[in-house]
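FAQ

Q: What does a record look like?
A: Structure on top, sequence underneath. For example:
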């Protein structure tokens, strides 16, 4: 299917690693000119160059900046005042008991996982509405609707993202602008892969077997019995970014591998 995304421009926050990086590559595969964002300029440049080598017909660009810093965020706005697609992917997470979630932790997660996405959306949405085309996509988590209790500070901010996405969608009535959320389940990021390899470092099993053993022991409700691959999330983002997805407005797309047990 031609996703009709050639020459569109997309900004993906937090796109030097994991899901964000995969989204950047999958959009570039469809001919999108991607803006790669991260706090480390050298890492951003490496991804930009890798995308350019793989998809030379596209024009990836460096959108370096710490989005928690107002001046650096404003610099990105000034350099890239218009985008067709905004993917709010930036986020932090860690396992933490509720007893350890103090005011400082709440602020860190609220600022990073929610306020940055809100600020980015606030800047770009009016421009999208004015030209009658745009896509804002939030990356949340199955924790948003099914908190495990293992990271309450993360789950709360991802639930907030669902509410923000739905609320903003009301602003797009009658326009070819859509605002949606994708909720990945446990995904095999570079960090997760390294953790698994370290856990089974004294084991002679293949990585595929390590992965399956871990999932069966720790995620027994998974229907796919493996971690989701980042590129799979990237492919969904590409479709939701396309003109073909115009009827999806204020939608939360579940990509949890079957972990969420409800029918809706």
């Amino acid at each position: 299917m031609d996703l009709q995304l050639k020459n569109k421009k997309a900004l993906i926050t937090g796109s030097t690693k994991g899901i964000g990086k995969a989204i950047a590559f999958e959009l570039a595969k469809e001919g999108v000119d991607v803006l790669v964002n991260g706090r480390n300029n050298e890492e951003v440049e490496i991804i930009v160059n890798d995308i350019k080598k793989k998809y030379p017909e596209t024009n990836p660009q460096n959108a370096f900046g710490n989005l928690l810093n107002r001046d650096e965020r404003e610099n990105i706005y000034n350099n890239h005042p218009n985008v067709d697609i905004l993917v709010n992917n930036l986020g932090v997470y860690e396992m933490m008991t509720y007893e350890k979630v103090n005011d400082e932790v709440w602020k860190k997660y609220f600022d990073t996982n929610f306020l940055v996405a809100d600020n980015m959306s606030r800047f770009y949405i009016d421009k999208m509405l004015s030209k009658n085309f745009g896509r804002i996509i939030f990356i949340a988590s199955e924790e948003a609707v099914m908190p495990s209790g293992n990271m309450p500070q993360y789950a709360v901010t991802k639930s907030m993202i669902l509410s923000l996405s739905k609320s903003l969608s009301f602003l797009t009535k009658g326009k070819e602008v859509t605002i949606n959320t994708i909720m990945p389940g446990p995904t095999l990021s570079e960090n997760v892969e390294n953790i698994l390899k370290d856990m089974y470092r004294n084991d002679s099993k293949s990585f595929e077997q390590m992965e399956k053993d871990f999932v069966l022991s720790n995620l027994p409700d998974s229907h796919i019995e493996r971690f989701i691959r980042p590129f799979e999330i990237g492919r969904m983002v590409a479709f939701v970014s396309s003109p073909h997805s115009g009827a999806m407005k204020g939608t939360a797309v579940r990509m949890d591998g079957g972990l969420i047990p409800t029918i809706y």
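Q: Is there anything notable about this one?
A: The longest helix spans residues 103-131.
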